[in-house]
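Exam review. A common question shows you a sequence with its structure tokens and asks you to describe the fold in words. Practice with the pair below. Do the first one on your own.
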Amino acid sequence: MLLLFRCLLTLSSTSLFVVIYLIKSHIFTSYFINKYVEIAIYFSYFLIIMIINVILLISVRFLENSSLSSSRTNENMINNVEMVNHSFLPTYLGYFFVSLSILDRDWIVFGFIYSIVFVFTFYSQTNYFNPIFILMNYHFYYVTTTNNTKVFLITKKLIKNPKMYKFNNLKRINDFTFIDRGDI
């Protein structure tokens, strides 16, 4: 299940790459003269991405439970928090510029480049940052625990004071990445 979840996470985080290419190349819209139909098709691309992300968030419940609290004392283990919403933006802008530079309807080049991006995103584990999650009101943090372990946390909570929050309802994506189910 974890492998399937990670593939779905990678697909959802790289899906904007595909949508930008489809819009730029006028795929499914070159035969329509009506601009309203064209806009509806573009909107449907975005709707498909949102559906993939909703499926992804629903499937989070099948992941292993975890916590950032001490199992013995139920004490908060968060020592430091760093918001990282902004740090992944250059990576995704790079994806957008690459998808814009591929020639229209050059499926072989597009497929090859997308495959490379997909594989690198899957194995580098930057796929846990999904720009669509920002639109769904999620935030991304690097959290340093009291053991000096740095973990990646995806949550809807806006963390200003790390000692104030307890994360007892987390789902483990891997040993260093968690998503908060506390308010889902």
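Now try the second one, then compare your answer with the model answer below.
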Amino acid sequence: RMVQEALSNVIKHASASSIRLAGREEGGQLHIVVEDDGRGFDVSRKLEERQGLGLTGFHERAKLLGGVIEIKSIPGEGTTWMLKVPTLQKQAHE
């Protein structure tokens, strides 16, 4: 669901000409990257202005799964979303 939402945000807001989606499993964690070459934005400013409620939701969902999400964006250059969550096998052993 988080990947779907990230892709939806790119389509709605980024005016990107390309999107890269990559995923891999490593050391009991699933790593997913969504990267675009769109308009970008100031992440901290969006969070401070409370316009980033969707961004807050990403962080909360990742935390609920025992993971983390990092969002890097540069205005005029694009955005990268990096999600790391434990795999189900890793969760079962804990």
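Model answer, second protein: The chain has a mean pLDDT of 89. The radius of gyration is 14 Å. Full marks require stating both points clearly.
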